From TrEMBL:
It comes from Flagellimonas lutaonensis. Residues 35-165 form the DinB-like domain. It comes from the Bacteria. Pfam families: DinB_2 (PF12867). This is Damage-inducible protein DinB. InterPro entries: DinB-like (IPR024775), DinB/YfiT-like (IPR034660).
Length: 172
């Protein structure tokens, strides 16, 4: 059973510890599925008028922040796939600030954003569900640091939780 408390310090960069620490000590597949349900319920409860809202100048809107979560999950999925398949090619980081303007968040509907989130999370659940136990233990280099496949799963969950907390505290 893949649990966050089983992760070792050499499975992820300390930066990602912020996200991993937010995740309850529950199996990865349960955490991904329950996180999806909670986040979809949360997004649906946000009034549509709030999606373009920014709490300060030069901060992302609610829609942009949700699309950032989606984009980051896709990047983490890709890393997990590469490492699980034993691809040892080091992976570069990504500049999240370049992604946001290209997301066209201001032209998207609330429903389309929620649908995309659900679709991406379902793909994450399917991807991690396809990995054999030994594949989950494999590591690769991302942004110059080692990262295990199983750690990436919990980073995905914690990253979403981190940003949901920001939405609750600063946007709503």
């Amino acid at each position: 059973m893949v649990l966050p408390n089983n992760l070792k310090a050499d499975e992820y960069h300390p930066f990602y510890g912020t996200y991993v620490k937010l995740v309850q000590n529950a199996p990865l597949n349960d955490t991904l599925g329950q996180g999806k349900k909670r986040f979809v319920d949360f997004l649906q409860a946000i009034p549509i008028e709030k999606y373009p809202y920014r709490y300060a100048e030069n901060k992302w809107s609610v829609a942009e922040l949700v699309l950032h979560i989606i984009d980051a999950e896709r990047v983490f999925q890709y890393r997990a796939l590469r490492f699980a398949r034993n691809d040892a090619t080091p992976l570069q980081g990504f500049d999240q600030d370049c992604y946001v303007p290209e997301s066209n968040a201001g032209k998207r509907t609330k429903d389309s954003i929620i649908w995309e989130y659900e679709t991406v999370r379902n793909a994450t659940i399917s991807l991690f569900g396809s990995f054999e136990p030994e594949a989950l233990l494999r590591k690769g280099l991302a942004s110059g640091s080692p990262m295990s496949v199983r750690a990436l799963g919990f980073v995905i969950c914690g990253h979403q939780m981190h940003h949901q907390k920001i939405l609750e505290e600063r946007y709503l």
